[in-house]
Amino acid sequence: MYEVGRCRLREILKSKRMTQVKLAELTGISKQQINNYINRQHIVGVMGLGTLRTIAEALNLDSPYELYEMKRVARSPEEAASD
Predict the structure, then answer these.
(1) DSSP classification of residue 4
(2) For a surface tag, which of 1, 7, 17, 51 has the fewest beta carbons within 10 Å of its beta carbon?
(3) What pLDDT was estimated at residue 74?
(4) Alpha helices for the chain (secondary structure H)
């Protein structure tokens, strides 16, 4: 089981040497909204699935889930028993 962590958009933009302005142009999402996603990166689920897909496609990511850290969470014995 996985838990969604913080948004990685800032790091991904930096690694791809892409500006917020360029991402805004590619996605049709305003630069201000992209900036909000970046500055609220500690909040899980700030982007809807459609937005995640749009941004992931513009950044050539394999999956929209790459935009967030995914942490493996140990299952409780009760959850394991229900399988």
Answers:
(1) E
(2) 17
(3) 78
(4) 9-15, 20-27, 31-39, 49-58, 77-81
Nearest Cα residue to 41 out of 2, 69, 3: 69
Distance CA 20, CA 26 (A): 10
- The C-alpha atoms of residue 57 and residue 39 are separated, in whole angstroms, by 21
Residue type, 76: S
From first to last of its 83 residues, the chain has per-residue pLDDT tens of 777 777 899 999 999 999 999 999 999 999 999 998 888 755 656 678 899 999 999 999 999 889 988 778 877 666 666 65
CA distance to 18, 66, 70, 71, 80, per residue, from 34 (Å) = 12, 16, 21, 24, 39
